Amino acid sequence: MADTVPTPVLDTRDEDSIAAEAIGGLPSELSDRSDSNPAVVLLEAGAFEIGKLLFQINQWPSSVIQKVLAICGITLEPACAATVQQTFTLSSPQVADTSIPAGSDVATSNGETVFETTADLTIAAYSSPAGNITLTSGSTAVSCDNPTFVTGTTWVGWKIHIQGTSTWYTIASVTNTTSLVLTSTASSTATGAYDVGPVSGTTSAQATTTGTTTNVGADTLTTIQSSIANVASTTNAAAATGGTDAETIAEAIDGASTKFATRDTAITESDFEEFAQKILGSGSRAKAQANTNIITGSDGYTSVACLSRKWTSSVTATALERAAVARDLAQRSFSGSTVIDLAASIDSLTGPSVAIYRKSNYDAVTAQEMVAAALNSYANPNTYTWGRTLYVTDLVKVVENVDCIDRVHEINGVPAIGSSYTAAPAAITFASSATATTADTSFVTDRQTFIIDATNNAVYLIISHVNNTSITFDRAWAGTAGAATPYYFKAADDDMNSGGGEIWYKLPYANIITPYSQIVVVGSV
């Protein structure tokens, strides 16, 4: 790449070289050239003043550049405020919906950095499904005499209790419609009608000040400054991103050539992206694809995907924002072009998932929390490289760079990490052998699919299967025998498109929150 043209230096001399030149020009009869000679002292003093004058003269080219940029309307980019996903946790499930309004303030522990929520958050009230549940003292297993449990991940992290009791227990997983597992053992044996409900929710927040200092780390926004009933705690699982300092004059001069090239007409993909981002505002993102009508190759079309700085997993850019971008680009497009606008697609991952070995000076929960924060930060639409596949090797690097982690677990050379954490589609009948039976093997990819044994914090690699009949693990099953619907994930690259073919406007979004059941700590060193 060619170097940019340097700013000229009008006079390269400094005060030392000027003084040396003047002293060297003294008549030969003035042989004393020491600093004690008054003539030398006067010359050095004069050289000092001339040196200061030359310094100011050499600033003149930059001053001219600044004036030209100002006349041409090149402005300094303003500082931006960071954004973050903020999680609020209740003291316990509530009888009525809990509303956390937009504008609620959270801050770092020292109160120096404050964030304000940008969207309303509602944490739903608990429900009272039909049936009676049974808790057993010292056990994490819960049963129900009526098939009212919701399978899958909906109830994971929710809390459940027997009506009339004050102790709520957190749900680790739902085995089937009549059985689930708690994160901790029951303190007593009891049976009765039950309540179940969520205790946390996540919404977007933005710093009330600007600058890179607002890019606070994960789990640092833990102080609630607004009065919100029933909220016990708050935190940001991932670091805040998008905070920038105001552009300096030197940065503006360096980037002036790009700004001049795109100031009026959009020609290249980067032109469309830059103009779109200016309309969407600081902290937004845009991606353009030339000769493309959304996903179909078509000459004369330019598709521009928009990600608002106030995106949510369901609304990435409002219709008004996209309309404003389309109006602006229509005036800047070359003759005959057609601009197609669309909201960026947020791929809310069911993963990522990983089995890890932690360092012994960290406890398991801390390790899970730190890994979850790192993965959430990596798979964040604000910063993730647009259109890039989620590679297993990248996920391994992210996890192994976390301070508390020794390594990602491997079985037969396959790293136990992926982005497809979900429940198996049908029950699997386990036995004390390396083979299990199931009526649905559609989720299996040999030597890529890992089954999670949540009870023993272990993962098993499926090395082969017989369609809709049986699966074979890398070793004998040591978990509970019998039928269950465990969770699984695949160690496979993910192009974030289940429909086949690349979707260039997709971005990943990971939101792993407590109880971190998809982060399996298999051991420590």
Key phrases:
6-stranded antiparallel β-sheet, 9 helices, 525 residues, 20% helix, single chain, 5 domains, alpha+beta, elongated, 8-stranded antiparallel β-sheet
Produce a short descriptive summary.
By secondary structure, the chain is of the alpha+beta class. The protein is built from nine helices and 33 strands.
Number of helices: 9
Largest sheet composition: 8 strands, antiparallel
Side by side, the strands of the main sheet go: 24-31-27-28-29-26-25-30
Structural class: alpha+beta
Shape: elongated
Please state roughly what percent of the residues sit in beta strands, choosing from under 5%, 5-15%, 15-25%, 25-35%, 35-45% or over 45%: 25-35%
Unreliable residue runs: none
Report the helical percentage. Answer: 10-25%
List how many beta strands DSSP finds. Answer: 33
Kindly state the mean pLDDT as a whole number?
88
CA(first)-CA(last) distance: 47 Å
Q: List the domain count as a whole number.
A: 5
Radius of gyration: 31 Å
Task: Describe it.
With 525 residues, the protein is of the alpha+beta class. It has 5 domains: 15-58, no CATH class; 83-124 and 201-235, no CATH class; 132-197; 263-343; 353-364 and 385-524, no CATH class. The chain has 9 helices and 33 strands. The strands form 8 sheets. Strands 24-31-27-28-29-26-25-30 form an 8-stranded antiparallel β-sheet, with no helix packed on it. Strands 13-3-4-12-1-14 form a 6-stranded antiparallel β-sheet, with no helix packed on it. Helix 6 crosses helix 7. The two termini are 47 Å apart. The model has no long low-confidence stretch (mean pLDDT 88).
